[in-house]
Amino acid sequence: MKVIKVKAVKRQEKEIYIDTDFIKLDSALKLCDIAQTGGHAKILITEGEIFVNGEECLQRGKKLRDGDRIEYENLCFIIKKR
Could you tell me the pTM of the whole model? Predict the structure, then answer.
């Protein structure tokens, strides 16, 4: 029998602050430095790599508000309104 070792990766959580009532998902990905451009954000979203509040999100224009969470790989960003 072959033994496989798995290394646990700690998820990093960071807070992102906005001055408006909401921010659209594609803009938030750029603000978080997950995506370098809007086109890159579109690809990540349409390929199902982005989760909002624990659910896969395929909407580029999804409005994120205070307390919403964006997850990508082992990163988690929490939207906070100033």
Answer: 0.83
